[in-house]
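idk why but the lab printer keeps eating my pages so im just putting this in chat instead. protein + magnesium ion:
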Amino acid sequence: MSFVLAAFAASDANSRGRRYPETAPAYRSEYQRDRDRIVHCGAFRRLEYKTQVFVNHEGDLFRTRLTHSIEVAQIGRSIARTLNLNEDLTEAIALAHDLGHTPFGHSGQDALNACMQNHGGFEHNLQSLRAVDILEERYAEFPGLNLTFETREGILKHCSLKNAAELGEVGRRFIEKTQPNLEAQVANLADEVAYNNHDVDDGLRSGFISVEQLRDVRLFGTQYAEVMRRHPDIPERVRIHEIVRRMINYLVVDLVDNSRRLLAEAGAESIEDVRHAGRPLIGFSDPVRAESLELKRFLREQLYNHYRVRRMTRKAEVVVSDLFGVFMDDPRMLPPQYLDKLRAAQDDKAARARVVADYIAGMTDRYAIREHKRLHDPSELT
Ligand code: MG
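predcted complex ->
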């Protein structure tokens, strides 16, 4: 089967290029090169020890941000290929989308944002972009990974207007209210499909939520009935997997069909048409969007607010805010590689706070816990 890139897909030919111009790669596309740089960077490796909902040391069976990102890439690539979009770009965005996440998932990020309130705040999408633009120090000829505009545009899923104004070209769409490339839109929704479904799977495995509860949620209930009808006697674990895989397929098929409709209606013929379409052209149909939201609501109420998850959340907040407080009180306790950055910040308190936030955001769950212990427990070696 030959593969033809749609006219509205991103391509090497219509790319806005890199911030620091480079010669074209010999055997790869520009977006393959982006993907490869992401896979080889330090922040990507650390995703293995960062969590989504459960803390990394709670069990080896739960998703980490690394396995989550790989699932997002898998789902995103399937959708991109089916819609004749650029699979390599979708993959690059998917693999990089969570690079800026703090330890302990959303609770860590909320805690760090609270600490940074008077110093410009903390946004995880912006931090992912910071990671690939600035924080990764690996190449002789440019800072960061020097990714293409389209990958950077995709990584920056959300952004406050204030920060958008400071970012220049890549932030402009938030001010002008234009859309990102389609591959970014695909990666964004693949993220949603991935976490809704794996949180059901991990939530059931943890015992924090039950099949009985989930049967009342339409998305799950429909597939549950189907699996029970076809395979009434399979073991519970297999049943859950059968249901989850069908949910993913149901969402992806709807997304592809509905996006085809949206693209045809808009008559987009180029990547610029996509950017100026006035609305996203990748999306679920209204009924399926409602079902997806119902599942999200269920997970928020029953899983993310489960008392044991909340206890973990609280501990995460304490660890992150304690670390922030300690390093702001005496930044000289930061590891030596941060001292140059501190010196550059001089008396600018916001700039100093940003150095501390970058250090904390880069930590894995267990590193943050260990660092907290080292700084607070006098019997620990420093
Ligand atoms: Mg994600």
